[in-house]
Write a structure and sequence with these properties.
Blueprint: E1 9-10, H1 15-32, H2 45-62, H3 69-83, E2 94-98, E3 105-108, E4 112-116, H4 117-122, H5 126-141, H6 144-153, H7 155-163, H8 168-184, H9 188-205, H10 210-222, H11 240-254, H12 268-271, E5 283-284
Parallel strand pairs: 1-5, 2-4
Antiparallel strand pairs: 3-4
Helix pairs in contact: 1-6, 1-8, 2-8, 3-5, 5-9, 5-10, 6-7, 6-8, 9-11, 10-11
Bound molecules: zinc ion.
Length: 295
């Protein structure tokens, strides 16, 4: 797990803005190919995990990672139960909680999944959390992150990331842009594929997949206009109501709910521990974990 000791870490976040600026260009090009065009992933499994580890290290250095064992263990246990029954159970999965009020979650290639405290606060049952995690696991199974990076940044840049050889600055630029890409979300087809896989994996793991639809409803209420959704900074995404309806239709068609429990390990036991970020409560990251680059 990418947790730190002794509380929660505050680090610099200045680089984020410039990385996001870059990502809008990349996502623009990635969105243009949405609509069914298949892209071949040439980045191998080992390379994907290597890229993921580099991005995870960057996230660990730049984000406030929640260290409360009760929260981290609950999220991780829920996620691992789903991941081991997914169609890609043979890679290690890592779950971490980021202290951030935005109701968001995202997956990094290679098996790294992050949930914001703002999303944890919005949820009420374990199956709703399972819905969020299962969707992210769906992205990892379908290798959406690495596809998006390959299309957005190019194989050359990713190869350099794996093999090295570029200057520290240009490597860091690729890492920052990559993190921004995976945080921004994916095209409509990828999102719907992740929803579909996620609902199926939830049922396999014994969580009522209705929890995924409920989590979507909750996030839609929290976000402006009801159109926002986790991962999605792009307003052109499918409206939440449509996705929720599609998930519920799939659950019904495939008979996935079958009386599965919605809250087997009561979520309230961890929800009350999720921090709301009062100022000054967090410990600061050691200097060695806060590299001096970025904007
Ligand atoms: Zn997604």
């Amino acid at each position: 797990m990418e947790q730190t000791e002794g509380g929660i870490v505050i680090t610099r976040r200045g680089w984020w803005g410039s990385a996001l600026l870059m990502v809008f260009l990349f996502v623009g090009s990635a969105t243009a190919i949405a609509g069914g065009k298949k892209s071949d992933v040439v980045i191998g499994d080992t390379e994907e995990r290597d890229i993921g580890a580099k991005l995870a290290a960057r996230i660990r250095a730049e984000k406030r990672i929640v260290a409360d064992k009760a929260i981290v263990d609950y999220v991780s246990r829920t996620g691992q139960n789903i991941a081991r029954l997914s169609d890609r159970p043979d890679i290690p999965y890592h779950f971490a909680v980021i202290e951030d009020k935005t109701p968001n979650a995202f997956a990094v290639p290679g098996g790294y999944i992050y949930v914001h405290t703002g999303l944890l606060k919005a949820l009420d049952t374990q199956s709703q959390l399972a819905g969020v995690l299962a969707h992210e696991i769906g992205h990892i199974v379908a290798r959406h992150g690495v596809k998006q990076l390959q299309e957005g940044l190019g194989v050359q840049a990713l190869t350099t990331l794996v093999l090295g050889g570029a200057s520290r600055e240009s490597t860091q630029t690729v890492v920052d842009a990559s993190v921004a890409v995976v945080m921004t979300g994916y095209n409509r087809n990828m999102e719907s594929e992740a929803d579909s896989y996620g609902a199926m994996y939830m049922a396999r793991a014994g969580f009522n997949p209705e929890g995924m639809a409920q989590a979507m409803d909750k996030v839609a209420v929290l976000t402006e206009g009801g159109d926002g959704f986790w991962e999605s900074l792009d307003k052109k995404h499918t409206p939440a109501a449509k996705r929720v309806a599609a998930v519920r239709a799939e659950i019904k068609d495939k008979g996935l709910d079958a009386g599965l429990p919605s809250d087997p390990q009561p979520y309230r036991t961890v929800k009350s521990r999720v921090p709301s970020r009062p100022p000054g409560r967090w410990s600061r990251a050691p200097a060695s974990r806060s590299p001096r680059y970025g904007a």
